[in-house]
Amino acid sequence: MPKTNPIAVALDTPDLPRARELVRSLKSHVGYLKVGMEFFYAHGADGYRAVAEEGIPVFLDLKLHDIPNTVEQGLRSLMRLTPAPAIINIHATGGPVMMAAARKAVPASTKLIGVTLLTSLSNDEIWATGFSRDKETAAHAVAIAGLAHAAGLDGVVCSPLDLAAIRKALPRDFLTVVPGIRPADAASHDQKRIATPKAAVDAGADILVIGRAITGSSDPAGAAQKILAELAP
User: Fold this and answer.
1) For position 150, what pLDDT does the model report?
2) What CATH number does residue 202 fall under?
3) Segment 158-167 mean pLDDT
4) Against a cut of 0.85, is the pTM above it?
5) Catalytic residue at 34?
6) Lowest CB count within 10 Å: 56, 134, 211, 217, which one?
7) Longest distance between any two alpha carbons in the chain, whole Å
8) Does residue 101 lie within any of the structural domains?
9) What is the structure's pLDDT at 217?
10) Average model confidence (pLDDT) for the chain?
11) What is the per-residue DSSP string for 137-202?
């Protein structure tokens, strides 16, 4: 990891037949399948298995954030899913003790990553939550990523706008999973801190999380292939 194909397609639909159709159509065109809250909460372990068994490595995007013991035990339960997720995440703002507890629950065969700052938040909204206006948003993201690295996590989820600073501050093998990716001709929807796939890869992204630009297309496989063509050297 990362795979040659950096696209993690976001399977956000709660419609199981539609999800299975999408996964089958995209098997040869994406590197990862991101299974998030909408799908997992609707279908649980059985739904997870139905799409994971298609063979695309799964990024299980549930963003656990609670007291250390609760997160640890929750992750132990999730590690019993079959096939096991290739990647799973927690909120890094849960703190060093919570992240260390999470690390104990996740074997080395699954990458454990921490969410830094959500890409749906504008700078003003980030500051409104209590982060200091005296620092750029990227500086806060770097600080959070540094805590994740120190706690033994394998990488972070970060905005493409914070990516260059995180790449500069942390080792190159520290995984960067980057949402807020929008092709130049796609709508931004509810994402505010965004970048094109090419810009994110050039800044050092390992994995690109892309949802509606692919899944909302009349030709999802074609949309994925178009993005891959744009990334070609």
Assistant:
1) 98
2) 3.20.20.70
3) 94
4) yes
5) no
6) 134
7) 49
8) yes
9) 93
10) 91
11) HHHHHHHHHHHHHHTT-SEEE--HHHHHHHHHHS-TTSEEEE--B--TTS--TT--S-B-HHHHHH
